[in-house]
Amino acid sequence: EGMNAVESENIAEEETLEENIEIDSNIEDQINSEDKVVFLNGSNGKEFFEILCEVAGVSKKDGVVIGDSIDYSSSNENYGIELETNNDNEINWISIYTMLSDKNDYENFFIAISRLEYNNSNRSECFNWIHDNLGKEATTKIGDANFKLYNGTSGNPILEVFTDGNEEYQKEQLEKINQ
Question: Do 142 and 122 form a contact (C-beta atoms < 8 A)?
């Protein structure tokens, strides 16, 4: 059962139209996701995780691939480090905390965050902000990274670094994993 030239041309046109619609929706998704920075461009999560582990004296562990992200996590009796990246090791979330109660014992660990390099990072601004706010509740934005200091339930400080698009990204990852 052969098709005539007109039928064949109509099918080709329909397929091209479907492909164009699919491309348009992909571009729309990209434009919408670019509204917010999801990853810190220029950052190296694996390398930075290892630096934090050295400063805290916790064991370096390999990242665990979960969906489209790599999770790094390690802790000991004094410190905890959690860090999440994409498959290119660009960071979108870091959380560090301490179980120590004396600021003199843990300040250097928190200040180590100022060593994080990414596009538009500012080491001295980060260093000064952490130094001035450690032990308080505070937030700031340096380049594309948001910084949030607060005290956990035990009263010990927690520092989170995250991108504007982090929450939506986390939801998308959970949805993918739970499908």
Answer: yes
Residues 166 and 38: beta-carbon distance below 8 Å: yes
CB contact at 8 A, 69 and 84: yes
- Name the 3-class secondary structure at 58: coil
* Nearest CA-CA partner of 56 in 32, 74, 72, 69: 74
- Measured CA to CA, the distance from residue 65 to residue 53 in angstroms comes to 19
The pTM (predicted TM-score) of the whole model is 0.77
As given in the structure block, the two tokens for residue 165 are 């698009």
Walking along the chain (179 residues) 10 residues at a time, the average pLDDT comes out as: 66 62 50 68 96 96 91 96 95 96 94 94 97 96 96 93 89 81
